Amino acid sequence: MAAKPDWLRVKAPQWERVGAVKAILQDLGLNTVCEEASCPNIGECFQAGTATFLIMGPACTRACPYCDIDFEKHPQALDPSEPLRLAESVRRLGLKHVVITSVNRDDLEDGGASQFVACLRAVREHSPATTIEVLIPDLCGNWKALATILAARPDVLNHNTETVPRLYRRVRPQGDYQRSLELLQRTRDLAPSVYTKSGLMVGLGETDEEVGQVMDDLRRVDCDILTLGQYLQPSPKHLAVQAFVPPEQFQRWQQVGEAKGFLQVVSSPLTRSSYHAEAVQTLMTQHPRPPQTSEVKP
């Protein structure tokens, strides 16, 4: 693997605080994408008392060559106790904003939508003041499943495009760029009160023009929030980094994204999809979405 430049170094966290968060997660038997996907910001986020919960087990049904989540394990049956355990963890950690994500569960008819709904409802019941972001897979284009999740009223629906269309066959072979855009468009149409969000990894061989085109495509489906971060190779068996993008370029992309109309652009080498996700609470005050005038019906 290529040597990382200095700007990708992270500060050592206060392990006492990190250990306290890990203890709660272990006590309740919960997974986090922070740990399963080897996120470089785990120390910062755990130190701040935040985490992105990974529901439906750590085993994924897809084998994306950039991702460190395990695809060789057999997916587990859904655990009916998981939503309550997650809600208890949110309560114990005192989270003001929580991100709930999952592996791809293409083995399930609804892609796991029912488990997202159960987790949303449990957190709402036990921590009603907590805002909730769901980071969902593409559900294999099951739009009824998407409507089921939206009917549970998340505050933010996040679905990552991950890379530019030209690189999909190599980077995200089981994904579909147009399907991801359609998911975000359908979310906007079905639930105008929900903020939509998407993210891109860079450093995989994309051009600046292609990044700009993805931004334009996301704005065409009225996506509110964009994250941009450097791809880091988890191990020698994963896709190699083609370029380490300097911080100055991320700053330029942030300016470009804001000029294109995104309400919020989080862009830096270490940005990940859930990085500083709690900032959406400020956005909700400054740029409220239109109220939901009708019930979302699956």
Write up this protein.
With 298 residues, the protein is α/β, with parallel strands linked by helices. The protein has a single domain (13-286), classed as Aldolase class I (TIM Barrel, Alpha-Beta Barrel). The chain is 37% helix and 13% strand. The protein has eleven helices and eight strands. Strands 1-2-3-4-5-6-7-8 form an eight-stranded mixed sheet, with helices on both faces. β6, α9 and β7 (225-230) form a beta-alpha-beta unit. α4 runs parallel beside α5 (113-126) and α9 (208-220) runs parallel beside α10. The chain is globular. The N and C termini lie far apart (46 Å). 41% of the residues are buried.
Short description:
This protein is an alpha/beta fold. It is built from eleven helices and eight strands.
For this entry, give a set of tags.
single chain, 298 residues, alpha/beta, TIM Barrel, eight-stranded mixed beta sheet, 11 helices, 37% helix, 13% strand, globular
What topology emerges from the helices and strands here?
Elements: H1 15-27, E1 31-32, H2 33-36, H3 42-47, E2 52-55, H4 82-93, E3 97-102, H5 113-126, E4 131-135, H6 143-151, E5 156-158, H7 168-171, H8 177-190, E6 195-202, H9 208-220, E7 225-230, H10 247-260, E8 264-267, H11 280-286
Parallel strand pairs: 2-3, 3-4, 4-5, 5-6, 6-7, 7-8
Antiparallel strand pairs: 1-2
Helix pairs in contact: 4-5, 5-6, 6-8, 9-10
